[in-house]
Amino acid sequence: MSVELLKEKWSNTINSLTIGATKEQGGSRTSIITAGGESTLPYLFSEGEMPHRPVIAMEIFDVEPTDWPPVLKEPFKDVLNNPVEWAKKCVNKYQAQSLCLKLQGAHPDFGNLSADQAAATVKSVLGAVGVPLIILGCGNDEKDAAILPKCCEVAKGENCLFGDATEKNYKTLTAACLADGHNIIAESPIDINIAKQVNILISDMGFDLNKIAINPTIGALGYGMEYAYSIMERARLAALSGDKMLAMPFICFVGQEAWRAKEAKGPQAEHPQWGPEAERGPVWEATTAVSMLVAGADILVMRHPQAVAIVRGTIEKLMEK
Amino acid sequence: MALSGLEIYKLLPKTNCKDCGFPTCLAFAMQIAAKKVELSKCPHVSEQAQVALESASRPPIRLVTIGTDEQKLEIGNETVMFRHEETFYHPTGLAVLLEDTLAEAAFDEQLTQINKLKFERVGQQININLIALKCSSNQENTFTDKVKQALNQSQFPLILMSDNPQLLKSAAILAKDKRPLLYTANKDNWQLFAELAKELSLPLAVKAENLDELADLAQKISQAGVEDLVLDSGTKPLAEKLNDLTQIRRLALKKAYRLFGFPTLAMTSSGDSYQEITEAAVYIAKYAGIVVIKGVSPWEVLPLLTLRQNIYTDPQKPLQVEPKVYEIGQVNEQSPVLVTTNFSLSYYTVEAEVEASRIPAYIISSYAEGLSVLTAWAAEKFTAETITKTLNECGIKEKVKHQEVIIPGYVAVLSGKLEEDSGWKVRVGPKEASGIPAFLRSLKQNIKGD
Fold first, then answer.
1. Is A286 close to B304, i.e. CB distance below 8 A?
2. Interface predicted TM-score (ipTM) of this complex, two decimals
């Protein structure tokens, strides 16, 4: 019996966003990555293409993180206070294809480092590794407005991905990224309308839509993950059906969220029924990541090397045709 | 798939006799389509029309029940492709594979381990649902013995697995009152399996290597009189399997394709236990009615059960707890009072941390339409006014002698107005619930010091 399959046909494709620039392109990266470009819902290859496999960026901090649980610190314990060595370890030992540098130290509560200090870190990490960089502010609007333009400037030509621009605070970062040729992350609080709005605001400043990634602000597995999951599905359906203001790749901060979950970090001594946290933590992060992949994630920012390895393997399998 | 009013009209006598109470057959048809009246109101309707309407009102994906009583698993009867369109109704059954070739002690140990795969999350018990018992020994007696043991030592319903229906028969008879799923009929053995399933009135899994063969087999077995089928499109690369699960669901829902109008089963094929978890995660998110895994460790199973809980949460109705005063531990009139919203994730996260602190306390879940703290604050459902109202009406004033309330750190901005409105002293708690134990301990010391 021949079953007549029901295949979706879409009128639009997701933008392709490239991070990094090689010497020929005016930067100094030894590799670049491209995310997005889908013309189908995730992994339905009989209905369209996924020309680029999802990217995993490993997250590093400019200052030693204060709230990482032991299981997460363990693989990096010798480099946590040294972003350059940390970056090298991710690339050399864990084969990271991209890094996400969070400039946490600029935050008034975590060192209040100056713009010059933040920029110096960006410069030294760029000098130490050849992979493309994602660069995040500290989350304090005032400080980020002060440090990020300087960081954009010292990274000029490297075609980094900078974040995050929000509905209330996008102008400074957009202008800086525009001036220095970087990509930008548009953040919205699990809200499809605001996601669209931020993209419109940024593009109204003359920003190329192909250089925007959407951060839908996900939750961890068990902690509201499903809200982002459905927002992403809705946005992707709208994008494939023709909405160009939502046709950006998604970036998901998986590590940051997953490692807040008690199920990821709680020690076995306190939760004997859950089993060893050394297994549980990375698996929690990996499962969160794979849920996001199924909903359409293009760039995953992750923390634990084992979780990264698991998800890399799963992406391999998902992309196998 | 439901018929439109016009389609129903075509099946009616079209005499406008008014015996149904409506002025015209068309008006009556519209009311049936809107599910406001029953077809039986028409005394003249033909048998043919009755059959057509009945089959049209059947759900596009059949509800299949495995097991009995409290442990029964109901799968199927889904109505949408994406959870945001409505909701997913019948959570994926998680099955754990167990082979009859295990020595008795090892088998026993596995069963004990499997029985423990129950967890409590946000006020719900989440657990695995089925034991997939596989006849790897190819010995009827060995299999029957293990089935007996599983029935005795575990509450979970069974999937009885063998390609050989004769080997399964005595085990199926033994377990039939517990309504196991028979797995699996294929193109070579389907007749005997269909007979067995029909004789014992048991659900039957059907397996083929591709969708064409699967439809073919589903048709033959349906025609043989088996009603409760579960579809398995075989082992294949992950994306292909995802494609199959999507097509089966889509054809059933969008084309009312009857042969795929059944729940599905996906068996993980990864040898690596980490890849098995992520593989199973893909199947849970994307439409599988049952997922069979090999891993039995809590760290393998808990993330999958949590994922299922997330995906099957109704997006229109966030899980809520009853807005009231909750007493955690041996509280007294001096115990601290914390307030959060009635979003169950917020409440249970706070509750777990208060419990962990071992300091007895009251938690007030303030009604905020089931929104989380920050969302509720932004939507003005968790404000100085609403919290004041809650403090006045929830009965906490009769329970404690002090007037001091702890609010979440994220809404510190409310403190001034809340003190003014309520007359209570406001303490700003930590932003993250994980800071609650340390916060409560320091509070206790401060109070002692006062």
1. no
2. 0.97
